[in-house]
Amino acid sequence: MVEGVVSSFSFKNPHVLIYLDVTNADGSVTNWMSEGAAATNMRNRGWARDTFGAGDRIRIHGNPTHDGSPMVSIESVDILDSDSGDVIKTMGNDGNQPAPIEFVQIPLTLDDGRPNLAGAWVQIHRPGRGGPDSLGGIPPYNEVGAAAQAVYDRSDDPQIFCEPPGVVRQSGFTPHPIRITQNDDHIIFEYEEYGGYRVVQLGNELPEPGEKTYMGDSIAHYEGDALIVRTVNLLSNPSHPHGHQTSDQVTTHETYKRADEEEFGPVVSATMIVTDPVFYDGGSWVLSQTKRYSEGYEFIESECRPPIRERKIDAAVKMAEIVIPPPKPPSEPDPEAEGPGILEQLETSGLATWVAESLYAYPIVLGLHAIGLAIVVGLLIYVDLRLLNFLGDIPLSALLGPMKLAWFGFAVNALSGFALFASQATYIIYSPPFLIKIGLVILGGSIAFYLQRQTTKKVADWEADSVPSSVKAAAAISLLCWMGAITAGRLIAYL
Predict the structure, then answer these.
(1) Domain map of the chain by residue range?
(2) Whole-model pTM?
(3) Domain 361-491 maps to which CATH number in 3.30.70, 3.30.50, 1.10.860, 1.20.120?
(4) CATH of domain 2-92
(5) Among 131-140, 224-233, 452-461, 483-492, where is mean pLDDT lowest?
(6) How far apart are CA 107 and CA 104, in angstroms?
């Protein structure tokens, strides 16, 4: 908690800043800097350019820096009476609560048939769903990429020190509004966050290898109902506050599509496929988000101010020490190989987009997955326990019906599981718990098929005699498979 007198207030992106003079115990005065969320989000909570003025007495609640520098984050701010010190009003820093949605309908296409992407597009807040980062997950690092990520220090995030964000962070991750202007020969992208913009020419040929920059060189073309933007010649750069480092061989493939939603009106579905042959383990990283149309939206000005502290250099030195393989010699691009791979196509398919972005699809599919799992596992465990003689008073012939019903649950589980996998295919495929779960499900299903065939053929013999030891062993392994599959499935979200 810090109390003092406001010296200046900056209601601008990327973050709201309050500077205040704090009187120390010895009577000296120190100028403190306090940082809140983006002005875009704070505006949703009632903050404005004139919320604070020079001379206002305030008390800031937040977290201090680790190095003791005069900085504090903003959790809430008490506006105090200058004479009595009593709290007049408290302003919160929770910028995630959206204002009521009022939308204007616009055509899906322009007069010439191109998708209508023109205008300002703002972030959609869906209850219970994460933002762009949760949809992207963690990049599929190889050893070199993991080493680069390991030395990243969030306190030295280049954006804190006002360096350019790079195209992945600016376009793929930004939860802030963007504005798209469609011209006959080029597209203009403007970003409220960091005040960035880029002009992308329309064409089909990728730019030649050349000077690398934070935003790179891009080319765009229309493909059916989508706008495709490809970018090369990018600098190595952290693509997220948590790092997600990319090498200078990274390329991006963006897809923009228009749709209309009942709840949000006109929306743009944006997907970025990030490919990095140096830092990624043979795959790509897919980022997806949806923004809604906002008629007459005015961008908040962006002005970055570096923190009142020295920047560390250890992370940069360590980064320079990482052995990065030399880039492959340039070659003629193969038109047949420019598109995304199978997993990327699956993750950008209509099914995956529906599951990831629809307000109702994800909970419905997840619910079906849980129901299918309960049917198949519940019934097969019942069968396994009977074959192991734990339910000896139940006739073996009574197992045949549950076995058939279990396959219905297996089908429901498989179909719903595929839909869930599709929405995060490029991320989930590298998850060890997911791979373990799939292996156990395949093994458990194979054993279930074997047990069903054996029980159908020999139920009369087993009723008269005992169940063979080989069948009991299979039933015991089946139990372990299904318990392991459930455990691994729960760990997917955490490991």
Answers:
(1) 2-92, 119-339, 361-491
(2) 0.56
(3) 1.20.120
(4) 2.40.50.1010
(5) 131-140
(6) 10
